[in-house]
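Morning F.,

Quick status update on the modeling queue. The single chain you submitted on Monday has been processed. Sequence for confirmation:
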Amino acid sequence: MTLALDELSSQFRLLKLHVTIAFEKTGTLPDFKGSMLHGWFGHALKGGGGNAYNVLFGNHAPNQPKPYVICPSNDHKADYQKGELYSFEITLLGDSVVLADKLITAVRYGEKLGLGYQRLPFKVVSIASNTPLGLKPGLHICNLQDWLSDLRSYPEQTQEMAVQMITPMRCKYKGCIIKEPVNDLNFWVTQVLRRLTQLTKFWVNDSQTLLDNVYAQQLPIHVETGEAFGYYEDWQRYSLKQKEQLPFGGVKGQVSFYGMLGLAPILLKIAELIHIGGKTTFGLGKIKLIY
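C-alpha cells below.
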C-alpha cells in the first residue's frame, strides 16, 4: 500500500450497522428493497434522529456524496410470514459516524412506521456491527485500514482477482450507462478512486495534497488476461418527488483479471465497504472481492 493510501485509510472511519427485524404480521414487500429502505430510513431519521436527517440527506455542497450506504438483503423475496426475520445494513462513512447513537434511535423509531406499502409491522430484534472480525453486538466504529490487514503487504508477483457485482452496478463507461460487465481493470480502479476521494474530501480530510497523492502513487497495472460474465438487471423505482417511474437497473455478474494488478485488490476491497457507482444510498453498487 502506498503512503498516501495508508494515511487516508487510517483516517477514514466507518460504522457498518447490521439490523435484524422480525415481522409481526404476514405481508408482502418489494422484490428489491433498496428504495423501500431508503425511504423508510429518511422518515425514521426525521422522526427519531434529530439533526441526523439534515446531515445525511441534505445537500450541503455541489457534488457532495451522501455519507451513508444502505444495503438490502441479496434475495428478491417478496412474501414474508409473521415471525420471519429480515436483515439489512446501514453504513455511516467518515465523520458521519458521530451520528451513531442517533442512528440507533432512528432505527428504533422506525418500528412505528412499518415497511413497504402495507406498512408491515416489525420489531427490531438485534442491532450489531459488521467488523473485520465478524458481527459484534452494539456499535463498533472501525476505519478502512482495519479491513485491509490481509492486503497491506503488496505482492510484487503476478496476481489473480475477481469482482462479483452483488447488487446492480449503475455507472457509465465511455459516456454510456453500462449494460454488461466491463472487462477493464483501469475502469474499476477509477470508479473506486473517484468515490473514495470524493467521500474523503467532504467527510474525512479535505487536504488536496493528500487526495492528489492517492492518485499519483498508484502502482502500474498490467493485465495479461481477463474475463467478464453477467447481464443487465432492469429495475425501476417510483419517485414521489418526481411522481414517475425512474430507471434503477444495473449490471450484475463477475469480472476477473490475471496479471500485475498493482493496488487494484486493495482498492476493490475498499469498494466492498463503500459501494461504487450510482444510487449507493439505495443499495446499488455492492461488490465482493475474490482475491
